User: What shape does this take?
Amino acid sequence: MAAIRQTEGRAKFGPYETWYRISGDLSSSKKPLFILHGGPGAAHNYVDAYKLIALQGRAVIHYDQLGCGNSTLLPDKGKGFWTPQLFVDELENLVDHLGQRKAFHVLGQSWGGMLAAEYGVRNPKGVKSLTIANSPASMALWTSEAMRQRSEMPKDIQDTLNKYEALGDYANEEYQKATMWVYERHVCRVVPFPPEVTATFEQVARNPTVYHTMNGPNEFFVVGTLKNWNIIPELHKINVPTLIISGRHDEATPACVQPFKDNIKGSRWEIFEHSSHMPHVEEQEKCMKTVGDFLDANDK
Assistant: This one.
């Protein structure tokens, strides 16, 4: 594979800093792609593969959202600080810092897709397209579908999850093993996990503030501030071409994703048959081509 030119930097965001990395050349005639990672608080590592789109002649910008990874860590900030608007403002700041306000694309994965939708309904200047990857349109759908998926799991897995959630003992080894059983089927089906995916889990363990505050202890037990999040009533406001991505075995099930397709005019939905929550890892070549072709079609 050809080498990808990369540069790193830090953007001032009020009293804080946002770390970013550019893969490829910002002076390309193709418009740059900003990658919004999930979590919240999972950092850029596990979506690193999207840098491969730079091989198609397009700059790809990864960044760590505030509170995780290489950006400013704020472990003492309370619930009121960590809001979707904070992360919308951070993205706007980064776009302007890099001088890309004229035209750019946005791809968000998982929580990043939720953030991309929050961004899109505000009709920000310069956005050429949105890609919403592996994301729910509401957390009520996410949690109800998580419970449905759990009801279909082996009884011993269900019993272990229920037991330790009732006790609030999320660090228990048995609970962690049961959680990993779920992750290997509905989060990433490439087992053992690739290094970049493992790096993200390790990063969340080191810097859990944002994830625990906004989401909860894990992917399927949501008790954080996003518990009642719902973008469905606003989706009709998105007025740019939108690609929706999900995996056949995704924790973001078709029921979670359907409202995006129903409410974003002209949107296109691609389901990756051999993937769960990370088609960019599980069906990497097809995912990069799907996204790259969509971006090429919507540069002008």
